[in-house]
Amino acid sequence: MHELPAEVRNLLLAAREMNQDRRDRRVLGGLAGRPPRFEYAHAPYSKEPLLWLADTVVSRTAKLLALGEDPQSGDWAAVVESVDCEAEC
Q1: How much is the pTM?
Q2: Can you tell me whether residue 67 is helix, strand or coil?
Q3: Which residues lie closer than 8 Å to 3 by C-beta, 6 or more apart?
Q4: 8-state DSSP, 70
Q5: Beta carbons of 25 and 40 less than 8 angstroms apart
Q6: What letter does residue 72 receive in the DSSP assignment?
Q7: Are 67 and 39 in contact (CB under 8 A)?
């Protein structure tokens, strides 16, 4: 989250268990600041079917980082680059 581009105004997260969603709101509320520089909400996968893509990218990137590997190299770099392009376009 510390690298969230300044132009981001809305975040949509996958709805999970109530306690996890509450924790997300606390963390994001703190990061958004006062006045908030972005809004955030939770939605179920059934309402936002592309949420699985973000979860896949984040999970795979986190796994590579935990293994000490660079997520910007190898086959995964092309996937991340494509997602970055879509987010910036």
Answers
A1: 0.62
A2: coil
A3: none
A4: -
A5: yes
A6: T
A7: no
